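DUF2130 domain-containing protein
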Amino acid sequence: MAEEYKQDLREKMVSFTKQKEEEFLRKAEAFEQQRKQQEELYDKQKKQQELTFQQKLEQEKAVLQTTMAENLRKTISADFENQLRMSKEANLENEEKLKLARAKEIDFLKKEQEIKTREAELELNIQRKLQEQREELVAQVRKQELEKNNLKDTEHQLRVKELEKQLDDQKKLAEEMKRKADQGSMQLQGEAQELILEELLRNTFPFDLIEEVGKGVRGADCVHNVRNQFGQECGRIIYESKRTKDFSMEWIEKLKKDMRSMGVDVAVIVTQCYPKGMDCFGEKDGVWICSFDEVKAVSYILRDGIVKLFGATKSQENKGDKMHMLYDYLNGNEFSEQWKAIREGFMSMKLSIQRERDAMERLWKSREKQLEKVLLNAAHIRGSIEGISGNDNIQLSLGEDDDDLLLE
């Protein structure tokens, strides 16, 4: 019973399924037909709209073409009339220019002919004058040749030799006078520096004795006798000043000979130029070398060393060698530090002076450029005013005075 019921239920379900499928197929076919009908209707409406739009577009296009053709016709007509008018004006202007050019050409030809005529006349006059000058020159040459031939050859030669001898004597005399003048000038400059050096040492060390060395006796210029606070003579320094452009190594050997012959302790050369390898004061081959600006500092150092050496020698008398003590002092830390401090102070001062000089030169250069710019613009203004005023006298001055020399 249950099986029959299940079988019956299955058959009903199958029948119901088929019925639903057939119904779905019918609805699908009906929907497809309806969709096709709507598409056909839409296509018809679209074609109708396109046809209407095309007709409207053709109408507007025709109207636009008609308007453009009318405007183009009017524009072409106006351009043609304008070109025709401009052509007539250009023809008239060209005719006037042609007439003017022909008149200028005629005038130019006339002037050219006049210039050629004047040139021909000038050339003729020049040729005549040249011919006259040639004839005069030939006559003078002939006359001179005749006069020379009339003179005796011996007298002429003697006169020439006499003049040549006088000329040679004058040249030698001029050269000798120039040489003596140069020597005198150099000697005066050297003597002036010697006197200044002696005066500097006397003013710097008023309690020491500064002695002048006589000319022709020795090479040194002066001897510095160093004295301590008790008036005792501690040692001597010789100075020789040179005022030349080039340094000679012979000066050192010559001064060393004078140093040994005079029995002094230290020798100093005061010069304007240094030997190779030196750019400031220092010691070379047993002789101290410095410039005139450095001599005061160098003399202080050497004098202080001699005084201290004398004191040490007195305190250590009969206890050691004097030269050993001097060597120890000169190689000691005190002398080294003092010398280093002096060198540092000197180099710092030299660098500071150089910086100040560079700054002032830059400032002067800048002001010079500014002044040139002011003067140039003032000259332009003056030229413009003179061009406007003509011969009227207008005073222009950059200062308080009435003159205008700065603008000239």
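thats it. The two ends are 147 Å apart (CA to CA). The chain has a mean pLDDT of 78. bye
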